[in-house]
Description:
Blueprint: E1 8-11, E2 32-39, E3 45-50, E4 54-56, E5 65-70, E6 76-80, E7 83-86, E8 89-95, H1 112-119, H2 125-131, E9 137-141, E10 146-147, E11 155-163, E12 174-185, E13 188-197, H3 202-214, E14 217-218, H4 235-248, E15 254-257, E16 261-265, H5 270-290, H6 293-307, H7 341-345, E17 348-353, H8 356-362, E18 368-373, E19 378-382, H9 390-410, H10 417-428, E20 431-433, E21 436-438, H11 443-454, H12 461-464, H13 469-472, H14 482-498, H15 513-524, H16 527-534, H17 540-551
Parallel strand pairs: 16-17, 17-19
Antiparallel strand pairs: 1-18, 2-3, 3-14, 4-5, 5-8, 6-7, 8-13, 9-11, 10-11, 11-12, 12-13, 15-16, 18-19, 20-21
Helix pairs in contact: 5-9, 9-10, 10-14, 11-14, 15-16
Amino acid sequence: MSILRLACAALISTLLVAPSLARSAPLQEPKIGSVWYEENVDLGFRVKSPKDWDFIPPSPLDANLVGKYAPPNGTYVSLGGSAVVFLSVWLVEFDRRAAAGKSDADTSKPGMKEMVLEAGTAKDLEAWMSGGIDEGSGWHRTEEIKPLKGAGVPAKWTIYEGQSTNGSGTDRKPVRCYAATFELSPEVDVALVGIGPADGKWRVYEKAFETMAKSFQRMQVVGTKAAPTTGTEDPRAEKRARLQADVAKSPGWTLYETPNYFLISSYNDKQFIEELKVRLESIRAVFEKDYPPSKARHIKVAMAEEEDGGDDGDDEDGKPAEGEEPSDDEDHSVAPTTIDPLLLSRCSVVRVCKDRDQYIQYGGPPGTGGYWLSIAEELVVFDDKAVQGTAATWGTLNHEAFHQYIFYFYGAIAPHSWYNEGTGDYYSGFEFKNGKFKAGPSIGRKSNLKDITSQGRHVPLQEFVRWSKSKYYGQNDRKLQGYECYAQGWSLIWFLRTGQGNAKGWQKSWSGILDRYLETLLDTGDLDKAVDKAFEGIDWKAFESSWLDYIG
């Protein structure tokens, strides 16, 4: 899905081999269940759901998706060779009403409208099948569109065929979708789309999907769809209302609250949820100490005043617009903020999937333990106790919570990855005792780093601090993989945060590097200027020698 490239995801320290395909899962042909999916908040319909399948809510950027059902435990169907198809039943809406705007993303924010449109707002089923569906590719109709006989709502059905997109190399096999579209009104259609193998067993799947489609019924709309948060009076109350409406139409999901967070979870481990609440508030207290909200207010007010000082609209300093990343072909002016960022930060949303399979079904990048999607303002994690262990989940939570926290105060300023990801990993190593966090090294990153430095494969720091995100993520001529760069980034932040008074050969000017970097970046929006200012006058040989000695 295209929105995943926007996510800041915490890479797991050891690479996983095709995690979505490595599981052994039995064939589970869909069977209609006795439980109804009901949507009476906005659209007004109900339909029988697949028996024992989980409901996966849409991402805030999924403009057409009502939700989808998927079997638990990553069940898939083998298509021969390495090709597989993951079973799903999608419920998709096509709303042409004037007030439509199904995405929960606030499109008034800079860059949001474009991202929502990029994520996809298809006008009909044909358009959605060509780009909105997250399984298979090259979809085309193989059947004429026909009336669905026996349906209680005017409906039509057809069959699409495409190629599987899960498997190794170019091993692709045909897959099919049964698609039924229901007319709720002249302006609103809802489609049910089910996927399966395009072989001799297809008829079994087609029959099951047809049976579900024929159960489709109208419902009276009794709720009111919540509007996106406007941030005019009480953003937390507005966010609560919207999330309550979302959860009301997401069976199996529950909404929890803490003073600064909303948690949406399908995980039934109450002890985990309670500990997560405490940890979130505790790590936020650390963030507030290291990155005071008052400092963010001061910076934003100063920048707004500078803009109001009579410039002609061209920003010579190239400051990035709040909520946007710097780009050479964009206007980088910063609009004055209309709401206290502290209030917005107290509406932070954390979604907890029940396991890795559900996390990937929701949109989690394979090989990660969690991600923060700034454009949707949502942090997503799961309890990885089965593979990496719950301790790894807590580290991921700290990492992504840092990105989430800093977003509200500084916006999407897009610093170098050594600063951004390195700081996230710095917090991921914090130890939690007696309800409070204490700084501690990230054991996983430290182990990875030792492998790099012992072989002399680390990147010279003078070069490393200017590496682009693509190089940091593994596209570099030094052949360092992403998790290895994460390890070096963590070590640099650890050194700068804890080295004073501890590192051999520490120099006083090094203590201000991180502050100078951030302040210069906020002031100019220029990555090179931020590095120049932060490391101005640094003796790189002495700096790297002290770093290597300190990190061991």
